[in-house]
Write a structure and sequence with these properties.
four-stranded antiparallel beta sheet, 9 helices, single chain, alpha+beta
Length: 237
């Protein structure tokens, strides 16, 4: 985790508080409560593509919150292929499971772009959960949501055709980060074909072919910076 050390920094109270308020987990805390958390938070910066956590890593002492940017949560399939399980964005968090159960990390996390993370080490993190039960409840709700999403993803990979899997990935991205303009849904900072392939459990070549077909059918528009879903309803057909 090179970035963990190269970019580590202790920030002043104002800097951390400005970032903390962007994390929904702490949005409902009072100023005094946020200041208590700020006193034990550390900021790290990671560059695009940098590994943050390794799957099976037995270092379980850090909880991460995303203040800026986004990360991919990845895992190896039984065939040894890396697949993207989820993309987490500003305001979301990761690393809580290993801290709570003491088991090795269940997935890898890599930065999807330059990002700023806020770190809480295990002891301060557990102390915060004891002091602020509403944070614990919010974490449990989010863990439940992720479990549902993971189960849906597994079912999608096992039951859908490759065309359906790619379409499902596009619709999921539209739901999570798309901007609706009339009947169109615009996804800024469009994902690469390789990222889409990793999310759909297929090859980059297959994704390229399917996207080309969708463009010919005028269901999709792609340029260097964005991807636009032109007809959400017909994307599956």
């Amino acid at each position: 985790m090179t970035g963990l050390y190269r970019w580590g920094a202790v920030m002043n109270q104002k800097e951390i508080d400005d970032l903390i308020v962007k994390v929904p987990l702490f949005a409902n805390l009072s100023q005094a409560e946020r200041e208590a958390i700020c006193s034990v938070v550390v900021k790290r910066k990671y560059e695009n593509g940098e590994m943050i956590l390794h799957e099976e890593d037995d270092d379980v002492h850090t909880f991460f919150m995303i203040a800026e940017g986004s990360v991919h949560v990845t895992a190896l399939t039984s065939e040894g292929k890396q697949t993207i399980l989820a993309t987490l964005r500003k305001g979301e968090f990761f690393g809580e499971m290993a801290i709570l159960d003491g088991e090795p990390r269940s997935a890898s996390v890599v930065s999807a772009e330059n990002c700023v993370l806020l770190l809480l080490y295990r002891r301060p993190f557990l102390d915060i959960l004891q002091k602020y039960p509403k944070i614990t409840i919010q974490i449990l709700v989010e863990m439940s949501r992720r479990l549902r999403r993971s189960n849906r993803h597994i079912n999608t990979l096992s039951m859908m055709s490759v065309y359906g899997r790619v379409a499902d990935v596009l619709l999921q991205m539209a739901k999570e980060c798309g901007r609706r303009v009339g009947k169109m849904i615009i996804i800024e900072n469009r994902p690469t074909h390789q990222v889409l392939a990793d999310m759909a459990g297929t090859s980059r070549e297959t994704v390229s072919r399917i996207l080309s077909q969708l463009q010919k059918k005028q269901l999709l528009s792609i340029d260097r910076k964005k991807l636009v879903i032109l007809n959400e309803e017909k994307l599956y057909y």
